[in-house]
Amino acid sequence: MATIKDIAKHTGVSPTTVSNVIHGRDNKVSPETKLKVKNALEELNYAANMGARLLANHGSRIIGMIIQDTEAVTEDFFDNPYHGELIQALESKIKKAGYFMMFHRVSNFDEGAKLVDMWNLEGLIVSGTSSNDILKWQERISVPIVFLDSYATDKQTPFLNVGIDDRNGAYQMTKYLLQKGHERIAFTAKGTSSDTWRGVDFERSEGVRQAMKEVGLKANFIAISPTYKNYKNFVSEILEPSIKEFTALFCSSDLLAVQIVSEFYKKGILVPRDISIVSFDGTPYSKYATPQITSMHQDVSEKAEQIIYLLLKGIDSKNNIIEKVEVKTNLVEGESVKTLR
Question: Could you give a GO molecular-function term held by this entry (predicted)?
Answer without folding.
Answer: DNA-binding transcription factor activity
